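Archive transcription. Copying these from loose printouts into the bound notebook so they stop getting lost. Printout 1 of 2:
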Amino acid sequence: MTKATEVPHVPPFDRRDLGLLLLRLGTGGVLVAHGTQKLFGWFGGGGLGGTGAFMESVGYTPGRASATAAGLAEAGGGTLLALGLATPAAGAAAAGGMAGAAAVLTPNGFFSQDGGYEYPATLGLVAAGLAIAGPGRLSLDHAFGHVLDRDWMVPTALAGAVAVAALVVGARNRRVRKAKDRESESEQEPLFEE
């Protein structure tokens, strides 16, 4: 072979692939842990009953269905991210779940030490970034020929997650506002004595 016809050597993976693997494993593992807290009560979590009651208390109704959806987005999305399988859908699902968590914490400000939304926002952004960047070559998506990781799937999955998160968070915010309005109405003193 002449120099012009030589096929360049392509290593099986490079440092980008290794970096994506580490991000996927770390982020996916954290998401799985949080999701299994909600679904099964593992790692000191409340399970569906306790998490459902909490979800109701912060405006996500019905609580048990909301806990199931959040748990599946986290545990399912996290598992798929860690494996590098269906990466656009996995990252979008996890990011959507984190948007719901961040909405609850937004009144507390940004920093997590004050109860703010820093942590779920970070997890959501990393998950969305992985959905966009792709899983790298050290992944099941790569091993299966990217059949569940096509370019068109990225905007579709992210747009779907944004739409669902906007609907769910918007409905929750309306319920919270109505509850606050009812509470403030009941606390108001009458204008006139009878």
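Printout 2 of 2:
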Amino acid sequence: MAGVTMGVFAIGVFATLFAGVSKGGFGSGAAFAGASILALAVPPGQALGIMLPLLMLIDVVTLRPYWRQWSWPDARLLVLGGVPGVLLGAAFYRVADADLLRLLIGFISIGFVAWQVGARAGLIGALRPLPVWGGALAGLVAGFTSFVSHAGGPPAAVYLLSRKLTKTQFQATTVLVFWLVNIAKAVPYGFLGIFTAQTLLFDLALAPFAVVGAWLGVKAHQIVPERMFFSITYLLLCVTGAKLIWDALS
């Protein structure tokens, strides 16, 4: 992008690496922190436009390591719900201004952390397997939140966690689901002008970091304790979420 400072580029590198590691190894749940971080430096709509091609690149890199290790019935159900959710997100985006998007991204960030902390503290009971309609609803919400803030991971995780998948099944299923959902998002993003020539040039500069982040995430899936990674993620999401809410209201 024209006028990109070293500070903005550094934030973009950090956000891209973080998203790559999260999507590559930890189920996409925290990958939307990349958009939250980037929205601290550029307008929210621009942050979304920058992040989507990078997320799609990460999807391609991570598909092969998890190929056919997913739960196809669960993935199909989430995608069937997710496409209408993407359309709802596109309709919402047309009427939302920058501060409304900051508020939404900020509240989703903090709400996600609150849900995770509540689950770990036992305040939220163990999930029972959700029925088919629950999976379709989770997909709808995931498609909507994915479109407006790249935050489809948490609602999809609620459904997938209830299915008692293995660690790698869970990871592989999220990779497949959001590869397809992100492809569906690309068309309305183009029509709404969220992509621009400038954002795509910025993406070219950040693309190597997306590949590196995805590769690190796949390796980390095997060796890094999830508790450590997500503890850092939760702190980061709280700080960025609070900052976005403050910016929107001030």
